[in-house]
Amino acid sequence: MSQTDAVLVLVLLSSFLPWISGSRSILREISKDNKEEVEYAVELNTTSFDAVLGNTPATYAVVEFFANWCPACRNYKPHYEKVARLFNGPNAVHPSILLMTRVDCASKLNNKLCDKFSVAHYPTLFWGPSSKFVAASWKPKQEKSEISVIDDGRTAEHLLNWINKQLGSSYSLDDEKFENEYLTSNLSDAGQIARAVYDIEEATTTAFDIILEHKMIKLETRASLIKFLQLLVAHHPSRRCRKGSAEVLVNFDDLYPSAVQSISKPDVVMGNGDGALRNFQICGKEVPRGYWMFCRGSKNDTRGFSCGLWVLLHSISGRIDDGESQFAFEAICDFIHNFFICEECRQHFYEMCSSVTSPFKKSRDLALWLWRAHNKVNEKLMKDEASLGTGDPKFPKIMWPSKQLCSSCSLSRGQKDNGSGRVDWDEDEVFKFLTEYYGETLVSLYKEKGLLGNGATDGVLEELVASTNAVVVPVGAALAIAFASCAFGALACYWRSQQKSRKRRRKLDVI
What we know:
The protein has 19 helices and seven strands. The protein has 511 residues and is an alpha/beta fold. Among the domains are: 42-167, Glutaredoxin (3-Layer(aba) Sandwich); 192-259 and 277-411 and 424-434, Four Helix Bundle (Hemerythrin (Met), subunit A) (Up-down Bundle). A five-stranded mixed sheet has the order 1-3-2-4-5, sandwiched between helices. It holds the Pfam family Evr1_Alr. It comes from Tripterygium wilfordii. Residues 298-400 form the ERV/ALR sulfhydryl oxidase domain.
């Protein structure tokens, strides 16, 4: 080979090296992806067992007791997961019907739980109404128990057949996530909003998942997140979300120290606490995911998260006192502006916030402003969805509330040239409707289950003390905002006392 030929070969090889390297990288990624096993069944332990099964929206549950060292259990797991994917997770084919869980009896933590159910071999499967598993036990030959052993679930096909017999259903392992053609769209039924408690929990959890995934906690957004957390601690309609928000809030300074502001540029991403923050679970580990009960659309890509977030904001606006209205307005506007990742939506909402020229003095004013803002968004989306055909046919955007939901809210209704609704509203009646719909009716399901605390501030304090032993609390300018709000007075006093105790202990440590 001549010197010229050798040079040519080297040039050709060098041109192929990046492609070869890239191909190997792609193959590694494919191999990695193939090794990652998606688990749909929810793994429970002694600590989470009652909480998850007591709070799931699913009517029934299957509990598998297994041991991680058991070869038969390992072989059975793919069968169990094949059925679980139909009912569990964000892409559940048939959500809110059945929760499939598992408990590892090889863990010492779960010994007493497995003994309560008389588990004598692995795997053992139980069936029953979800709520009946709470504080329950099971014995062989036990009479009058709504919990029963699944005696024919040795394959995915057999297990699903057994479930179908219990439910009178005809689910198939080949079912795919469906366009919900038979979803009720009876918007005139005011009681449907009670189901939205679960959707608000999921929307809250999803919002914070997005914040962490996109590393959106920065020095310039830190204070607005703290403000919104303070709002959730006092007024989130879900008790477990109030508790989770409080746990995040009292540890926020450790996760994202404010002292960094003096030495860093304002646009630096404060990502060091993201991993630790994920461990707090803003609405608890047992929060249902993928159900979208009130907010479930008739098409897979409609409603869901955005609907749940709107319901959350309306519910907060209906729960605050007059003195908190401006604080709540600023917290909501800043949160959407800094943490909502739909750019066009974010900008539109920011423009509506910026158009407000005087502070809110009444909770009524905030509730009605948010209602008007929502209708402005609906009016804008009407045009877009009409021209692009992207709307949900069973849940079209309307000027809300409808006549069926609130007959006294509107004095008259007409049509503008562009097809959107023109309504003369009785705002006193609208405010009354908003308060009842997003207040009493929304949380009625929680009242029935006995999950609500006795009052906003007192309940928050009790939950905060019970949920954490931490003495590291948020300090600085962000807390000063909370202290100015009447509803946070008791909470502020608690934080202050904890901070003083912390300082005293530090002095003693130094001495």
